[in-house]
């Protein structure tokens, strides 16, 4: 009899310890949330409910709930209607940021193992916390997290795991930095995130600026021998320069992006066009300059050239001269036009100066070729 009583008391004690947080089923939503929290704790093997918190409690953030267990916490995110498990080291770091009412917000993942390089992370609404044995536990958010994600997170060959939190500075317009295993990121309002390959850097590296110049070099064209009209050209050729993320690098002089724009009623006939072309290499109106940085080059910034050229034909319909070898096509200037992209790294590869040719054709004999020089020079 005594043995049965002891077993009964032990069973009751275990039941109360494990399920003391569950409200009555008449509490509806709270009961469902408690069930969700309890199920997550069991799934993540968090053990019994911690003695400091025998009952599920509301968070400071509206609509949330949490409960502490022997091996971690479970938080209910009201926006996602899900419960997430958070471990001790992640909880401490999250607390430094103000828990769910701080800048990071509610958790949106459990404490998870990183997929390739050994470590752990927990994702939150506005940031993440990462932990590794070598580098400790640190949060990553905002522009730094976006840049880190673009480079491959902890698997990035030039960053790796974070080894500090964000650190405030005031150097050359940069206001924050964060160090990683193999590099450092810098940020300032109105500036792109700047990368340094020095993992111990505390001030942004000097930015080497280059002047990118585009200069048309020569043009040529022709028609089948039986066509007496010759090439009567109208249309335009535009150039723009972009960072790898798609943001545009503006022309230094603020000039039009058109290298030439010939209206149809003012087409260039053979004789006049040839005369005009002889001035192209020295005519400053045909040169565009762009201020680019070494960081732009390293990050695969590129030149984009778009054509819309036509041969005015007096005896029949006009011939559209299409770019033969195009990178793609884009809706631009009220039409869908082919374009060519050239990475700045390709210019560097040829000692900072390369001559290119683009061939255009109507597919039936009319052809046109544009030659140009792309060069980079240090400022």
Automatic annotation (TrEMBL):
Q: Which residues form the signal peptide?
A: 1-20
Give the protein's recorded name: LGFP repeat-containing protein
InterPro entries registered for this protein in UniProt: LGFP (IPR013207)
Superkingdom of the organism of origin? Bacteria
Pfam families per record: LGFP
Q: Which UniProt keywords apply?
A: Signal
Q: Does the keyword Signal apply?
A: yes
């Amino acid at each position: 009899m005594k043995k049965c009583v002891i077993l009964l008391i032990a069973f009751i004690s275990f039941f109360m310890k494990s399920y003391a947080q569950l409200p009555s089923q008449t509490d509806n939503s709270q009961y469902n949330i408690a069930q969700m929290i309890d199920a997550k704790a069991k799934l993540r093997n968090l053990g019994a409910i911690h003695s400091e918190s025998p009952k599920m409690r509301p968070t400071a953030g509206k609509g949330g709930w949490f409960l502490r267990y022997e091996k971690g916490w479970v938080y209910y995110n009201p926006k996602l209607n899900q419960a997430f498990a958070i471990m001790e080291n992640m909880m401490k770091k999250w607390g430094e940021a103000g828990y769910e009412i701080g800048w990071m917000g509610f958790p949106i993942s459990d404490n998870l193992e990183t997929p390739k390089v050994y470590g752990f992370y927990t994702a939150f609404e506005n940031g993440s916390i990462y932990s590794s044995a070598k580098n400790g536990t640190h949060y990553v958010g905002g522009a730094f997290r976006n840049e880190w994600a673009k480079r491959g997170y902890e698997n990035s060959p030039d960053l790796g795991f974070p080894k500090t939190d964000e650190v405030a500075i005031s150097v050359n317009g940069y206001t924050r930095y964060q160090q990683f295993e193999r590099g450092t990121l810098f940020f300032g309002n109105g500036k792109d995130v700047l990368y340094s390959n020095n993992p111990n850097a505390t001030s942004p590296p000097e930015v080497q600026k280059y002047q990118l110049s585009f200069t048309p070099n020569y043009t040529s064209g022709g028609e089948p021998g039986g066509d007496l009209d010759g090439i009567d050209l109208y249309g335009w050729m535009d150039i723009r320069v972009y960072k790898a993320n798609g943001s545009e690098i503006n022309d230094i002089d603020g000039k039009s992006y058109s290298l030439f724009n010939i209206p149809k009623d003012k087409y260039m006939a053979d004789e006049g066009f040839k005369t005009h072309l002889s001035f192209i290499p020295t005519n400053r109106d045909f040169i565009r300059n762009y201020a680019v940085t070494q960081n732009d080059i390293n990050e695969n910034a590129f030149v984009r050239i778009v054509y819309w050229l036509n041969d005015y034909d007096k005896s029949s319909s006009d011939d559209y001269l299409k770019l033969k070898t195009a990178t793609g096509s884009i809706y631009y200037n009220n039409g869908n036009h082919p374009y060519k992209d050239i990475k700045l790294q390709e210019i560097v590869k040829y000692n900072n100066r390369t001559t290119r040719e683009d061939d255009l054709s109507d597919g039936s004999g009319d052809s046109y070729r544009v030659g140009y020089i792309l060069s980079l020079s240090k400022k």
